Automatic annotation (TrEMBL):
Keywords from the UniProt entry: ATP-binding, Ligase, Nucleotide-binding, Purine biosynthesis
Protein name in UniProt: Phosphoribosylformylglycinamidine synthase
Superkingdom of source: Eukaryota
Record-annotated Phosphoribosylformylglycinamidine synthase N-terminal domain positions: 51-168
Cited InterPro entries: FGAR-AT_N (IPR040707), PurL_linker (IPR041609), PurS-like_sf (IPR036604)
UniProt keyword ATP-binding present: yes
Gene3D superfamilies: Phosphoribosylformylglycinamidine synthase, linker domain
Tagged with keyword Ligase: yes
Residues in Phosphoribosylformylglycinamidine synthase linker domain copies: 195-244
One Pfam short name: FGAR-AT_N
Length: 286
């Protein structure tokens, strides 16, 4: 099935407070360039499945959905930013930042659900990107903005874990990413050092106790090599976040063991008060 990306724009991209904070960050990115102005907009990247474009009524509903209440003409098909070259010695650079494409954001999931409930069933993903038009004035005779300076500006604008720069307007949400092959971690032959290596390579955050325990587990009890996937699963399932090793551990203060763990101390605060919650501490970590 064919995929089309419809791009709609909303202005401004940032609230006044966030705009000022972002502008301050950008001004610290370069010693050669003086950032004089920042203009932003939101771009809605809308994936439409099928060979036909949205008709007039469908577009009207989509515009209504994306437009803020009581604020007409804040969403349109063309950009609000003026990217034309400056004639007064000022330079401009446009940087677009959006979520990484290998997963749909929670915002997209909700937006698609709403679209489909009002009849826009061919829309299967919507992601918001923010477009930053940065105007600068060089402090020397040069007027060109270097690639390194662009990268420095972009680094101030996004979280690399969940976001990335869109070098070109999106034409598809498809990504050419191939999963790494699963492989054996040769604990039977290389002993603990094999786990130490996969721990470094995959960032598993195993500590010394973990490495000793899993080495002994696979060599003496399971009697086979673990796979890289198994090691990753152990790291996630038995992490502090999931098991609360530290917060549920024995608590010894000045040589004396305290009756309750840190976790139990926190949970006790809810036993006699705040009984309006039926889900407190009710997750799969307990």
């Amino acid at each position: 099935m064919a995929e089309q990306i419809v791009r709609l724009y909303s202005f401004p991209g940032l609230s006044s407070g966030r705009h000022d904070v972002t502008l301050s960050k950008l001004k610290s990115a370069s010693t050669r360039l003086e950032v004089t102005k920042l203009t932003t907009e939101i771009c809605y990247n809308i994936s439409v499945q099928g060979n036909e474009c949205l008709n007039a009524d469908e577009l009207k509903n989509l515009f209504w959905l994306l437009t803020s209440t009581f604020e007409e003409d804040t969403v349109r098909k063309t950009s609000f930013l003026d990217e034309t070259a400056s004639t007064d010695g000022y330079g401009k650079v446009l940087i677009e930042i959006g979520p990484r494409l290998n997963f749909s954001t929670a915002w997209s999931t909700n937006a698609v659900s709403i679209c489909q409930s009002i009849g826009l069933e061919q829309i299967d993903r919507i992601e918001r990107s923010c477009r930053y038009l940065i105007e600068v004035r060089p402090k020397d005779d040069s007027t060109d903005i270097t690639k390194e300076e662009e990268t420095a500006f972009a680094a101030k604008l996004h979280d690399r874990m969940t976001e990335c720069r869109y070098e070109k307007p999106l034409t598809s949400f498809k990504v050419n990413v191939r999963a790494e092959s699963c492989y054996e971690v040769d604990v039977m032959k290389e002993d603990r050092s094999a786990l130490e290596k996969v721990n470094r390579d995959l960032g598993l955050a195993f500590d010394g106790w973990d490495l000793d325990y899993y080495t002994k587990l696979f060599r003496e009890r399971v009697k086979r090599n673990p796979t890289s996937v198994e090691c990753f699963d152990l790291a996630q399932s038995n992490s502090e976040h999931s098991r609360h090793w530290f917060f549920k551990g024995r608590l010894i203060v000045d040589g004396q063991e305290v009756e309750d763990s840190l976790m139990k101390m926190v949970m006790k605060t809810q036993e006699t008060t705040n009984n309006n919650s039926i889900i407190k501490f009710s997750d799969n970590s307990r």
